[in-house]
Amino acid sequence: MTDIAIIGGGPAGLSAAINARIRNKTVLLVTNDYKDSYLAKAERVDNYLGLPGLGGQELMEQFRKHAESQGVEEVNKRVISVMPMGESFFLSYESEVAEAKTIILTTGVVPAGKLPGEGEFLGKGVSYCATCDGMLYRGRKVVVVGKSADAVEEANYLHEIGCQVTFVADKEGTRGLAEGVELVTAKRLEIRGDKAAEALIADGREIPADGIFILRQAISPQDIMQGIQVENGSIVTNKRMETSIPGVFAAGDCTGRPYQIAKAVGEGQVAALYAAEYIDKMKKEN
Amino acid sequence: MANEKAVHLNEKSFDEVIPQNKVALVDFWASWCGPCRMVGPVIEQLADQYNGKALIGKVNVDEESELAMRYQVMSIPTVILFRNGKEIAREVGVMPKDKYASLLEANL
Questions:
Q1: For residue A136, what are the domain limits?
Q2: Which of A10, A37, A67, B57 could form a disulfide with B26 if both were Cys (CB 3.0 to 4.6 A apart)?
């Protein structure tokens, strides 16, 4: 079992990982490709102490190098859910499962609101996990709403297992889709159906589909973790970065404004320290 | 789980057993689905806890696609509660154990 599973590899997640390693805890860092993070896309950052004038990508690379030197290993997968199991937690990322003593959520800014119809049809045609549910749609029409970097891969996977796939992107420039996957560019999306989802309306055009896979950069914390307390889209924490669920900590943009690197790094460290303390206490009690 | 207590159902055994039980909780799952592997141990715990009180079953949607179609399982894990053979509630996605337990409690 891993000591600390960290979900999200931005500055908060990396800072938590480094500090957890320094305290001799094992770490599992599950994250998107760092090149998709908001920071990696920032042109220039001037307010981070001691390292002025660097580009976002350069900063990220330095942070990552530091983490790597501490023995932090990362897995580039999409986390689907986290569940408390008594004295530990189970987390699933695509088709894999891991067990950890504590969780630190560093998932970044919560994505903008859901699509109209998304909540209503979740589990009734709408899915966030192509690996999990793809097989249930073999031989049927599906739409992939591609808002994350790995969406193309997932669309190709669905195509490979025998779904008829339409890929919907919000801007031009999608590359790497398998032959036979239809590409549609549209901005305004809506899901329609009756008892289950029946179609995606993309800029007014109706695309009939039995399955609609919505693949975002990040899944909102409530969707990953049932029952976690959230206010105005941010995870509620105390000064020790503890969330409403014992053993679960949060740090960085997902806990709210300001969305700044220094704040994320600081919170990541605090979360790791108290997560380590939580583990040590648990050990004593047993 | 070394000691599996939940009953693995195929189409035939499902149709025999589910209507005969006042309360049955069935987990629709597949081996390729990570979240299903989290729910699995919870279902086993429930099977232990409700032994003799309710039927706790599992349906592999890969092998029993007919059952998955019949109950319109579109996302897994899906856990369905049956009372005298009729579906009365379902939970889609990973839920804490309490949620499944309270479904059972409310119907026993």
A1: 118-215
A2: B57
Query: Under a CB-based contact definition with an 8 Å cutoff, are residues A14 and A66 in contact?
Result: yes
pLDDT tens track for B5-15? 899 999 999 99
Nearest residue on chain B to A224, alpha-carbon basis: B94
Q: Min CA distance, A159 vs chain B (Å)?
A: 17
What does the alpha-carbon distance between residue B26 and residue A278 come to, in Å, rounded to a whole number?
A: 36
- CA gap A218, A140 in Å, rounded: 26
Q: Are residues A100 and A136 in the same domain?
A: no
What's the CA gap between A251 and A22, in Å, rounded?
18
> Each residue of A67-95: pLDDT tens digit?
999 999 899 988 989 998 888 999 999 88
Residue whose C-alpha is closest to residue A131's, from A91, A92, A180:
A92
Same domain, A222 and A83: yes
The answer to whether B33 is a known catalytic residue is yes
Supply the mean pLDDT for chain B. 92
Query: Is the CB of residue B75 less than 8 Å away from at least one CB of chain A?
Result: yes
User: Can you give the pLDDT at residue B3?
Assistant: 55
Residue B79 forms beta bridges with which residues? B27, B91
Residues A51-70 pLDDT 10s: 998 999 999 999 999 999 99
**ipTM metric:** 0.80
Set B33, B89, B92, B95: catalytic member:
B33
Check if B35 contacts A (Cβ < 8 Å): yes
Same structural domain, A123 and A255 = no
**CATH code of residue A139:** 3.50.50.60
Q: Does B36 participate in catalysis according to the annotation?
A: yes
Which residue in B75, B78, B91 has the most chain A C-beta atoms within 10 A of its own C-beta, making it the best mutation to test that interface?
A: B75
Among residues A215, A247, A273, which one ends one of the domains? A215
